[in-house]
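From the methods appendix. Each design record in this collection lists the tokenized structure first, followed by the designed amino acid sequence. Records were kept in a plain field format so they could be parsed without special tools. The example shown here is representative of the layout used throughout.

RECORD:
FOLD TOKENS (140 positions):
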């Protein structure tokens, strides 16, 4: 009896899981490097408007289920950011020692959730800056 139920329910369950796998974004499957690029890299942007953070935080899936409080977008090439891993070591916010600070200033946009803004209406302040960055480096 139990085996019959299993045989009846198993094919539809597999089908549902396959559909969910195709429909759901693969955010859980991304590597740390891919997550960093999704959340922080935007090398092709030269002009930033006041609505930049609202658009980018949504576009890059940082307002799904909650509003990420702050984020930095780097407007430099990936090789320019990767080279920071060979520059000065600094302590990370989490206490680890795999963070590195750039010796040169980089073009960045700092996004900060506005006071009183709540999910699902995530509203951000956009601030364009030129400053050194700190990145955590692991492996390649």
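DESIGN:
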């Amino acid at each position: 009896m139990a085996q019959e139920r299993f045989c009846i329910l198993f094919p539809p369950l597999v089908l549902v899981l396959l559909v969910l796998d195709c429909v759901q974004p693969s955010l859980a499957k991304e590597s740390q490097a891919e997550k960093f690029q999704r959340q922080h890299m935007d090398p092709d942007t030269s002009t930033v408007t006041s609505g930049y953070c609202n658009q980018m935080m949504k576009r890059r899936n940082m307002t799904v289920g909650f509003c990420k409080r702050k984020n930095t977008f780097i407007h430099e090439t990936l090789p320019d950011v990767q080279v920071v891993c060979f520059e000065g070591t600094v302590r990370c916010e989490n206490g680890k020692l795999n963070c590195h600070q750039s010796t040169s200033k980089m073009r960045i946009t700092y996004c900060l959730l506005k006071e009183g803004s709540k999910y699902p209406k995530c509203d951000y302040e956009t601030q364009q800056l030129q400053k050194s960055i700190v990145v955590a480096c692991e492996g390649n």
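APPENDIX NOTE: The chain has one domain: 36-136.
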